[in-house]
Amino acid sequence: MQYFSRRSFIKVSALSACSLFISTTFSGCGDDNDDDKNYISVRFDHGVASGDPLSDRVIIWTRATPQEEVGAQEQISIDFEVAKDSAFSDIVRSESVTTSKITDFTIKIDVQELESGTEYYYRFKSKESVSTIGKTKTLPVGEIATVKMALFTCANYTNGYFNAYSEAAKIEDLDVSVHVGDYIYEYGMFESDGQTPAYATENAVAINRVLPEDNDQELLTLEDYRKRYALYHTDSGTQAIHQAAAMIVVWDDHEVANDTYKGGAENHNENEGDFEARTESALQAYFEWLPIRPIEDKKKIYRTFDFGNLVSLHMLETRLFGRDKQLNYADYYTPEFDVGAFQTDVLDTERTMLGSEQVTWLQQQLQTSTATWQVLGQQVLMGKMNLPAEILTPVAQLESATAEEKAVLLTQINTSLAQLVEIKMKAAQNVALTEIEQARLAMVLPYNLDAWDGYFAEREVILGVAKALDKNLVVLAGDTHNAWASDLKDVNGDVVGVEFATSSVTSPGLEQYLGLPDQASAMGFEGALQILVDDLHYVNSYDRGFMTVTFTPTQAISEWHFVDNYQSSTYGLLSSRSKQLKVVAGNEGRKVESV
């Protein structure tokens, strides 16, 4: 049998695990020959991070920025320390690893053989430089009284400062943070014509959030994606939330390109090269720059995290691995809307977002888990968002409308909303409706075909499994840039679970898309939606922020937090718009309720 020295063990681990260094009690013991170490001047400009915590291990991460020339194959040495206290008087691991241009000077270590449910502190060193100190926590085992997690989505650099991260980092009892995607955006500063501002860049100059000249084009190459992650990691909020707690991540679409699906994306054309090559570059940068444990097939990012007997968090991949191409309403106008063809396609039992392999995996996880709460951490809304068809037509036309046309369309939308709300209220009061009024309410269509509404049959499979197994189901979502809470009902109308969805960190939502000028107008629109959408209990269509969810054996409480400013790094909490809702465990609960 061949025995490895400490340095040899780490090098073998790195080669076999996609540049992941493994730190165990074995690798941290014994004398080490330091002759091959290469310490140079570096800075830790991009902070520190931890993630993918398990009961006995956690990933820690940093990026070393060399202050002198480094050869293409040159390995530079970085030390790290893990301790049980922030003063590092009780160090449990102290070792040296290497990094190079090959991994963009990022460093990722799987620190193993740790104690469960325990806080640890970590830092990195090289020559005269020492990183900031990060705090992390391993997952608990056994009977657990409470778990608290923060949920984030959609951080757009050019549209604002990541104050939501900064605020969440202040939460002292936070066990973990969860990011459900759009950690970065792939857009450049301008559209392909070089003049039209790209998505969410209109205010970038005014708020000093312009993309740098060497990274101001749409992301296509590995170097492009790496530079964008580096930029995002310079934001003080990004650094603060990573420093405060371990983060569990999954991508959405913008980590690659807008509205991705297996084999393509809305924001990818043949002039931009091979989509698979672009995806591979995007995912390589993702795994380099985020504290996630590497896997052989990068697209199979779905995985489970168990918080003792209280929570099983199942992180799903809904974009690249199994998703069929999204349906598009425009394809069903010939010239009148072909209802039959649309229903045939949207109800197709073969239509998939997760893919059969991932669905089978999820079924097995739900079946074998004995945790009180089964939580799906994923990207897009699962709750039904059916709206009267007469509203969807003008809404769909907004994106390509001129300023004058948009004003007309918004007036039309507002008029229809007011009338439909009045009709719905009459129906609720058992007032007889005319045939025309009944028809206006009856003709409903899914608002967003990129969400689970566009993958009806597979959603029913997931809800059916949770129902058959009598599980307490909570779905966490992002993507829309707005906050939501909905009951999850199956095709029979039975409530199976709930969905809590977080607002964006900075990306613009319905307030911009629908031209809502202030909170008062937004509140009117929100009230109308809650009346018109049957399963919807809460929506915030105007504000930016994040969400916390606190789980106990009897209930799960979701709280939405909003910042009053994201146009600069100076901000406060918008307490008047905060919201708490809950779901109670057990057969009599499992629906959204007031706290």
Helix content: 10-25%
What's the total number of strands?
Answer: 29
Chain-averaged pLDDT: 93
| Head-to-tail CA distance between termini | 61 Å
Name the shape in a single word.
globular
Whole-angstrom Rg: 25 Å
Instruction: Report the portion of residues in β strands.
Output: 15-25%
Strand order of the largest sheet: 14-13-12-26-27-28-29
Number of helices: 13
Parts with pLDDT < 50 across at least 5 consecutive residues: 1-18
Major beta-sheet overview: 7 strands, mixed
Q: From the helix content, strand content and strand pairing, which structural class follows?
A: alpha+beta
What would you note in describing this structure?
The protein is of the alpha+beta class. Helix 9 (403-428) crosses helix 13 (519-532). The N and C termini lie far apart (61 Å). Helix content is 25%, strand content 24%.
Give the SSE map.
Layout: H1 6-16, E1 21-23, E2 42-43, E3 48-51, E4 58-63, E5 65-66, E6 76-83, E7 91-99, E8 106-111, E9 119-126, E10 129-130, E11 134-137, E12 147-152, H2 163-168, E13 176-179, H3 222-232, H4 236-244, E14 247-249, E15 260-261, E16 264-265, H5 275-289, E17 303-307, E18 311-315, H6 339-346, H7 356-368, E19 373-377, E20 386-388, H8 389-397, H9 403-428, H10 435-442, E21 444-446, H11 456-468, E22 472-477, E23 483-489, E24 495-501, H12 510-513, H13 519-532, E25 536-540, E26 545-551, E27 555-562, E28 579-584, E29 593-594
Parallel strand pairs: 1-8, 12-13, 13-14, 18-19, 19-22, 22-24
Antiparallel strand pairs: 2-5, 3-4, 4-8, 6-7, 6-9, 9-10, 9-11, 12-26, 15-16, 17-18, 20-21, 23-24, 23-25, 26-27, 27-28, 28-29
Helix pairs in contact: 3-5, 7-11, 8-9, 9-13
